[in-house]
Amino acid sequence: MIEIYDNMVIFEDVIKDNNLINLITNKEKFLNLKRFLNRPPESSNKNLAEVDFKFLYDLSDRLCDYIMPCVNKYSESYGYKIGTMQDWILLKYGVGGFFGTHSDWDKFKPSSGGRLQDHDIEKRISLVYYINDNYIGGEIEFPELDIIVKPKANSMLVFDASYYHKVNTITEGTRYAIGQWFI
């Protein structure tokens, strides 16, 4: 576990099962994604990413075998209570794809530093598992914290869901990632 900032860490070499890695990185599966979040590229607060929920639902138990120990270590280290796990989301960002600045806990107003300060509210966790790293652009940026991260393939970024962040525009290649949130 590598700490980047308070409540923000990277886990490297997350999935140890080569069969699972090969299944996740199967290009055929990614090329057949059905859902598309279609929003205009002119808008800096919108995204261009294809998502596939069923594919990851089918792999959920196997993913949890590797991801949950990391989430548990993170939650123990930072005092988070793990609640409900939301649906897995598979993200595909092609050239021109991006996701504008947002918080995964955006129903509350942020304080300085990009993190919510209402301690009466159960904290939430966001994570992004990076399937590949052979693309240009696509870094995850935390503008209010002045942090830009581009993890290696088979790494996972875990952070407080209240941090405002964005995915920078892909200029070459395709970025594949898996997202997950805990309430």
Could you walk me through the main structural features you see in this protein, from its secondary elements to its overall organization?
- It is a single chain.
- By secondary structure, the protein is an alpha+beta fold.
- The protein has a single domain (2-27, 47-182), classed as q2cbj1_9rhob like domain (Jelly Rolls, Sandwich), CATH 2.60.120.620.
- The protein is 21% helix and 32% strand.
- It is built from three helices and 14 strands.
- It has helices at residues 18-24, 27-31, 53-78, and strands at 2-5, 8-11, 35-37, 49-52, 89-93, 99-102, 125-130, 136-137, 140-142, 147-149, 155-160, 165-167, 170-172, 175-182.
- The strands form three sheets. The chain has an eight-stranded antiparallel β-sheet, with helices on one face.
- A hairpin with a 4-residue loop joins β9 and β10.
- The longest helix is centred in the middle third of the chain and has 26 residues, at 53-78.
- It starts with a strand and ends with a strand.
At a glance:
The protein has 183 residues and is an alpha+beta fold. 21% of the residues lie in helices and 32% in strands.
The helix-strand sequence is: EEHHEEHEEEEEEEEEE
- Mean of residue pLDDT values: 79
| Fourth-level CATH superfamily | q2cbj1_9rhob like domain
Give Rg in angstroms: 16 Å
Secondary structure category? alpha+beta
CATH class type: Mainly Beta
Strand content: 25-35%
Helix content: 10-25%
Largest sheet, strands/sense/barrel: 8 strands, antiparallel
**Stretches where pLDDT falls below 50 for ≥5 residues?**
33-48, 108-112
Overall 3D form: globular
Strand order of the largest sheet: 1-2-11-7-14-5-4-3
Named at the architecture level, the CATH assignment is Sandwich
Q: What is the CATH topology classification name?
A: Jelly Rolls
